[in-house]
Design brief:
Layout (H helix, E strand, L loop, with lengths): L1 H34 L1 E16 L9 E21 L4 E22 L1 H8 L11 H7 L8 E23 L4 E22 L4 H7 L10 E24 L2 E12 L2 E3 L4 E3 L2 E14 L4 E13 L2 E5 L5 E5 L3 E15 L2 E14 L15 E13 L2 E12 L29
Antiparallel strand pairs: 1-2, 2-3, 3-4, 4-5, 5-6, 6-7, 7-10, 8-9, 10-11, 11-14, 12-13, 14-15, 15-16, 16-17
């Protein structure tokens, strides 16, 4: 009996121990699945050439190209948490490395540029090239070459986290934080094939029209900053919701000019209120948003006294506006859409006070049609869109991300160039 009792107790202990181990591994596995780790690794090498027209009209006043080359690597560890409850979150760390260059050769027709700067080109169609060659001063060359090259090597490190809380079945709150540290080496150099006659006439000095000859030089520097976001979304009905957000962004510190002077990081605070809805059995969707951007240390470009186009700190700037969009699925194959945007974007202080942002008219609208058709070879789609803007310059919505890839200012007067 004693032996039987001891054997029974030993079996019970084994059973309890077995259940405990099973429960431990099951709970550990469940939590691991809820956390859902992710690891992303990237290696990239690229080289590319592009030829484009930077001046925006048909006459060949300027023809630019870009020869870009680079290699990069990145590593990110991300942990995602979602147990099916009210709270979900993600966080992680990342590293990014890049070593690259962008060489920009520029062909400039100074006969056209000279007439343009003096207001001698009729609008909107200008003059024919034979007429331009006949009326422009003989001292202005019809073809000159200028070139600049940017060099850069970056090691960037990020730590980030984001939490979403479902306060009720219809109200959702979210917040995120990111810290970034950059270690950079930047370089710049520029050459010209011959002196610019226009630049000499304007300044009495020998140099280029867009860039000035600069021997290649390099500078090491570091930068760091914190950005965040706060978002609230409320589901008014099954087919409609409203949202509000406050977020920050930053364009890192850069170096500029022949002396590679450091320009402070551009920082922006964004406020947005919006609504979205779907009607007529979700065939009609409507959405609209009010927004405001407040900039500090706005980075823009200007020609300096030596004729070089450099990046500088323009101080404060603000953009306030509205964007709306309508989509109507008339049939399974036909989609009608229309958009409207208003933006009052102006520099707030300094030498550009009151000036517009470049590429930012106050009003713009578009409407279009998308037709799709299923065939045995697949689905074919044709999209037609007609934009309308209150300026010759089309607007690019996300101001914080809109940047010219090459200097474009031709005059030292106060203009709307950004």
């Amino acid at each position: 009996m004693v032996g039987a009792a001891a054997a029974s107790a030993q079996t019970a202990r084994r059973s309890t121990s077995s259940h405990s181990i099973d429960d431990f591994f099951r709970d550990f596995t469940d939590e691991w699945v809820r956390i859902n780790p992710g690891l992303a690794t990237s290696l990239r090498y690229f080289t590319g050439e592009e030829v484009f027209d930077p001046d925006g009209f048909s006459l060949p006043m300027m023809t630019f190209a870009e020869d870009a080359q680079g290699k990069s690597a990145s590593q990110e560890l991300r942990l995602n948490y979602d147990a099916g409850g009210r709270v979900s979150a993600f966080g992680g760390v990342s590293w990014f490395w890049e070593d690259g260059s962008q060489r920009v050769p520029m062909a400039i027709n100074e006969k056209i540029a000279g007439l343009f700067l003096n207001g001698a080109l009729p609008r909107p169609n200008g003059l024919s090239l034979p007429v331009i060659n006949a009326v422009a001063p003989a001292s202005l060359p019809s073809s000159r070459l200028e070139e600049f090259t940017n060099y850069g090597e970056t090691n960037s490190y990020d730590v980030f986290g984001d939490v979403t809380f479902k306060a009720t079945d219809r109200l959702e709150l979210a917040g995120g934080l990111r810290y970034t540290y950059d270690d950079k080496t930047s370089g710049y150099g520029a050459t010209i094939s011959s002196p610019s006659a226009i630049f000499f006439a304007q300044t009495g000095r020998v140099g280029g029209l867009v860039v000035q000859p600069t021997p290649s030089r390099y500078k090491d520097f570091t930068d760091n900053g914190v950005t965040y976001r706060l978002v609230a979304r409320y589901e008014v009905a099954d087919n409609a919701n409203v949202y509000g957000s406050i977020s920050t962004g930053r364009r890192p510190k850069v170096v500029a000019g022949a002396g590679l002077t450091q320009i402070a990081a551009e920082e922006v605070t964004s406020y947005e209120l919006g609504a979205k809805t779907a009607l007529l059995d979700r065939r009609l969707t409507l959405e609209g948003a009010l927004y405001r951007y407040d900039y500090e240390n706005f980075q823009t470009s200007q020609r300096d006294s030596g004729g070089a186009t450099i990046i500088l700190n323009a101080g404060e700037a603000k953009a306030t506006g509205f964007e709306g969009q309508l989509n109507f699925q008339a049939t399974p194959d036909i989609l009608l859409f229309s958009t409207y945007g208003y933006s009052h974007a102006r520099f707030g202080n300094g030498m550009f006070e009151g000036n517009r942002f470049r590429l930012s008219p106050d009003h713009q609208a578009s409407f279009g049609l998308k037709i799709s058709r299923d065939t045995k070879a697949g689905r074919f789609t044709r999209r037609s869109c007609r934009p309308r803007a209150a300026s010759a310059w089309p607007r690019r919505r996300r101001c914080a991300a809109s940047r010219a890839s090459a200097p474009t200012a031709l005059s030292t007067s106060r203009r709307c160039w950004r």
